[in-house]
Amino acid sequence: MPRRISSGRMTPGRPNPTPVRRVGGARSGRLGCMSSFVIEASGLSRSFGQTHALAGVDLSVRAGESLAIMGASGSGKTTLLHCLAGITRPDAGTVGFRSGSGRVEITGLGERERSRLRREAFGFVFQQGLLIPELTAVENVALALMLNGMPRARAEEYGRGWLAALGLAGLEDRRIGQLSGGQAQRVAIARAQVTGASVVFADEPTGALDSVTSADVMSALLDSTTGQGRTLVLVTHDPGVAARCSRMVEMRDGRIVGERVAA
Amino acid sequence: MIGRVAWLLARPGTTGLTASALPVVAFAIVTALLLAVLGGAQTFWTWTDDWAVTYQALAVIALVLLVVPLASLGGAAARLSARRRDDRLATLRLLGATPATVSALAVIESAVLAAAGAVVGVVLYAALVPALALIPFRGEALGIEGVLLGWAALVGVPVGVVLLAVVSAVLGLRLVVISPLGVRTRQDAPRLHWLRAAVAVVVVALGAGLMAVLQVAASALVILGMLAVAFGGALAVQNLVGPWVIRLVARAQAGSAKTPAKLLAARAVLESPKAAWRQVSGVAMTSFMAVFAGSGVAVLGSMGGGESDRESELLIADIRTGILITVIGSFLMVACSVGVNQAAAILDRRDLYEALGRLGMPTSTTDAARRRSVMSPLRITAIGSALTAAIVMLPLTGITLIVAPASLLVIAAVLAAGIGVVWLGLLATRPLLVRAAGA
Hints:
The complex is a heterodimer of chains A (about 260) and B (about 450).
Chain A: E1 3-4, E2 10-11, E3 37-48, E4 51-62, E5 66-71, H1 77-84, E6 92-99, E7 102-105, H2 111-121, E8 122-125, H3 137-146, H4 152-165, H5 181-193, E9 199-203, H6 211-224, E10 231-235, H7 239-243, E11 247-252, E12 255-261
Parallel strand pairs in A: 5-10, 5-11, 8-9, 9-10
Antiparallel strand pairs in A: 1-2, 3-4, 3-6, 6-7, 11-12
Helix pairs in contact in A: 3-4, 3-5, 5-6
Chain B: H1 2-10, H2 18-42, H3 52-94, H4 99-132, E1 136-137, E2 140-141, H5 144-147, H6 151-172, H7 174-178, H8 180-185, H9 195-212, H10 220-256, H11 260-271, H12 273-304, H13 310-348, H14 350-359, H15 363-392, H16 394-403, H17 405-427, H18 430-437
Helix pairs in contact in B: 1-4, 2-3, 2-4, 2-6, 2-13, 3-4, 3-6, 3-12, 3-13, 4-6, 9-10, 10-11, 10-12, 10-15, 11-15, 12-13, 12-15, 12-16, 12-17, 13-17, 15-16, 15-17, 16-17
């Protein structure tokens, strides 16, 4: 059965396990109550021609935390996110992912296995949403479940639930071009969450939004991830967005040069 | 100022050289095919005997039939060259560029790309001449001299192709000029009225009625007139009803789709049923003609027996050759058109395909979806047109079924092979999709 979250909206149950009341206020996923690592990266290096995007990065992500990766353009933050999520294979180093069924070394998986892992265990939110324009909002969300073999009717039922939970009730059958930027980004969040992903990766999720919508979308993102005990890893250049996460690392020239944990 | 901006836009963007190369290739194919068709047909106008007029009339019919898929391919090439830039042009419009500036930029770019393609097309045609020379008519091959065109055609056709590109660019960019935001967000949802279907049913019934009373007509001229009305009316109706039927089927498919590929394909067609129709509409005429003329030739052939003279036998054999060439040519052009449109669509949506790949959507699913979005309208068009022709020509197709059933099988096999050729055209763009998804 769906439960209420702090915003008073309803959210669906499985396959995304039923949400719990958000506990972190503006900043969620406190480190104090978590210790197990969900992602462990060690010695990551990645070059594009003569450019060293990553130069020996070690990073561990705890279950339930929200981690912001900051840095100037070209510092390697998106490449790091791609390596952690199994989108890009590093030239050297390893990335491990721990879930209920054990530990998987992502860097040792083939393209097909990594693709399956991304589909089933991870969620993604991109700067432009990158939703399929000819599909309706609910079909965009349901598609993530249909790709995992769920029947369409059930997938759309979950999709509608998630859209309603994110404040989009009544807009389910609109095409993406008929939604505002903030609404489209909420659809993208629903798509990332509906599969029950244990880790959500977000690449500049508020980069294309105004400050008010940006704060709103960020709240929705935190509510639906760390607010439910899931993990959020996001890349941003916005200090305001990073400040709402429980931990922040700063990158420069392919290395982590600073780390700050929320008080 | 326009010249400077045009130069800026002409530089390769994020899609690299492919974005410029694709329209050039498409225009080259259009030019080469047009020259090949004209080259093949010109021989008929060198004949002066009693049969010459018959061959010339048949050649005109074949040319008219090939003009539709050719125009469709030309339009696809022109739209591709225009669409490569329409987002940027829309942005310029938002920045305050006047409609005249935007139109001028579109015209300049399309004309330059079309001219480059047309020149390559002339070279391609020259390479095709030896193969065209081998096609037999009236018992002998056409020969190199028969298919080699004069300077007037070699200059006139490329100029015509450039003009086609310019006109298409201007028409295609009306939307940018009228509503730049509409283009940037692609939010228009198309609507088609059911009245199209009602008109179609009436015209097809009228055509069938005309064919049924054909034998009571007083003169050959009246018979020809009635044939033209039935044939032309049925073809016009296809253009009217084609997009509507495609939309109707796609809507039903979208509602019942159980897999991601089926859902994506149906929604892609629903996004623009007119575009889906335009892509395969050349097949509608060819398929219609294959049944219409194929049945007639089959019946004539079976009635000939040992009494017919050699010229009549040659004419029937040549009509068969003509039908075959027209069907093959038409499907080749549709295959090229599909290839061009699909390549453009992949380039346009490469960010989305890349994102879907990152989300874990298998490329096979994306590929299956776009395959279905082309093949489903194609099947509807080819089979629907053949059935329409069979209905209009009901007495003749009925006779053919009895006296020459193999002919109908041959027609069906040729149409199936044509659909296969289009499928190959689609397959040719798969590497582009794989690159985009894995980018």
